[in-house]
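Researcher: Let's do a round of design. I'm pasting the structure tokens now; please hold your answer until I've finished.
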């Protein structure tokens, strides 16, 4: 059992921080985590929403009576928690044959790196593509309200759910500066602020790069979120291989963010010996996370589809 204790100590001290890097070195996860908010640890996430601009007020004279008409401007949406896990195993024979410190370090590094990379790839993919009921609600589901009408408790196909729609253009056509400007203005008009984050495919990103370079001769590079990222009206423009062909997303991270359960944030199970129960000469361990992508105001975001 001593070797398991040593492996657990090394894993907790040195390798869980490696797994924690899923929040740092994948640019879309990093951006959605940048304005995360604390939420309770209940069975569902309750998010207050503003569904109306109905307020009392206006110009008045000194002897006027200022009357406030009660109006229920707040509603609430409910989101389920999504649970993810990734596990790996160490073979006891491998441990025995790599028993000195340096070799054990290499063995753990490869094993935990695989867990981190696999978890990161799964979460990054689910951020942008609709999954099953046990997955996080994707950006695509929030913004493509024609194909994903119901989000949480709100049916956006009905008039009373219209406030929870996004700024969607289904058949956008050729990518132009005018098209980008219109979409940014739509998001600001309805969301009060320009999007700060634009994500598209590599093909469309390279077309935007070419348009920009040809117009102003800008020398730049595609990097993670940074001051040197390609921009449009102050918004970082990046590409992801998780985006469907012809799509470009305009995100306001004041209103779209990842919420992580406070009691299940990359929790490590510990290495568990499988030989006593399964007669397998392996140690197994896993990392779990419970989270959800939240959007409290889709009108602040936009989506172009059918871009070329």
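Researcher: That's everything. Go ahead.
Model: Designed sequence:
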């Amino acid at each position: 059992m001593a070797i398991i204790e040593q492996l657990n100590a090394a894993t907790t001290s040195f390798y869980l921080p490696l797994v924690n890097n899923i929040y740092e070195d994948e640019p879309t996860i990093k951006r959605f985590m940048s304005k995360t908010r604390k939420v309770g640890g209940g069975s569902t996430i309750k998010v207050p929403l503003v569904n109306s601009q109905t307020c009392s007020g206006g110009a008045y004279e000194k002897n006027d009576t200022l009357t406030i008409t009660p109006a229920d401007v707040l509603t609430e949406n409910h989101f389920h928690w999504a649970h993810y896990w990734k596990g790996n195993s160490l073979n006891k024979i491998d441990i025995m044959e790599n028993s000195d410190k340096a070799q054990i370090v290499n063995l753990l590094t490869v094993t935990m790196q695989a867990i981190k990379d696999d978890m990161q790839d799964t979460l990054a993919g689910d951020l942008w593509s609709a999954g099953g009921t046990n997955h996080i609600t994707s950006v695509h589901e929030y913004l493509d309200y024609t194909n994903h009408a119901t989000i949480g408790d709100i049916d956006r196909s009905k008039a009373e759910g219209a406030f929870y729609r996004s700024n969607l253009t289904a058949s956008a056509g050729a990518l132009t500066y005018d098209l980008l400007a219109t979409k940014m203005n739509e998001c600001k008009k309805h969301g009060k602020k320009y999007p700060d984050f634009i994500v598209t495919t590599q093909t469309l990103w390279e077309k935007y790069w070419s348009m920009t370079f040809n117009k102003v001769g800008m020398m730049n590079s595609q990097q993670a979120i940074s001051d040197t990222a390609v921009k449009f009206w102050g918004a970082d423009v990046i590409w992801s291989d998780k985006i469907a062909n012809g799509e470009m997303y305009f995100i306001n991270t004041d209103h779209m963010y990842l919420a992580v359960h406070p009691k299940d944030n990359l929790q490590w199970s510990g290495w568990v010996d499988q030989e006593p129960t399964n007669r397998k000469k392996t140690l197994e361990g896993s990392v779990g996370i419970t989270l959800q992508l939240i959007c409290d105001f889709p009108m602040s975001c936009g989506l172009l589809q059918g871009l070329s």
